[in-house]
Structure formats: structure tokens, C-alpha cells
Amino acid sequence: MSSVFSKIISGELPGRFVWEDPEVVAFLTIAPVAAGHTLIVPREEIDRWTDLEPRLLARLNEVAQAVGKAVVEGFGASRAGYLIAGFEVPHTHIHVFPAEDMSVFDLSRADPDTPAEVSDAAAATIRRALRDLGHGEFVPSD
To answer: Where is each HIT domain found (predicted)?
Structure first.
């Protein structure tokens, strides 16, 4: 059975994409810990990050770093948080989000009731920052 992320990647379910390349996508989570909380996901459905080929893991981290720089720039954060948990969806993903302190690393504080317009605006902010940082070729249209 396909993971929910595979369904988002294939277009079966909607997603707010901020990055698309042949191996990796990034889209906003539906339950953010902060505005701009983005998931970096390989297109290939692999449950555990420890099972990724090293080259794909490196690519995920390259994209996570680019998105991290974009959330810092776009949201004026002092840092970008980075977290791999892997229990909620059996498809490798890296959480990247604006962070001012450690409280935002608590995924139990995620807000599944974030209004659509807030998420839409956050996605637009990240796309704009990624373009400004020179990654426009990987950024989908708004």
C-alpha cells in the first residue's frame, strides 16, 4: 500500500510543494510546529532513513539545507530546525522548520488545525526565498 506521501507525490492527494526534482520533493506538512514547517521526502518510498542509499541521503540533506536557508530568510528565524523521526508515516522524511528555541522540536505540539490561508502563505514565502537563493529551477509555480 502506498504511503500518504507517495499519494501526495503522485498527485492523488493535494500538497503544497516548494521543491521538486527527479529524486526529492519538499512540501508543507498539514500539522506544522511553526509556519513554514516543511517535509523533505524522497520520491522513492523507503521507510527508514538508515536504509537509504548514501547518495540519496546526501541529496535529501542538500535539499533540506536549501529549504532551511529559505525558512530562515523567509520567516526571519535565527535557525532552521532539522528533525528525522519517522514514526508517523512509513516513508523517509526530514522535518525542516523555523526555530527560535528547542520547544519547536516537540512534534506533539504540531497544529493540525492550521488555516489553509496560513499554509498557502507560508508555502509562497518559502518558494520566493528559494528562488531568491538561486534554486528557481526546482521551485514549482505558486
So the answer is: 4-109
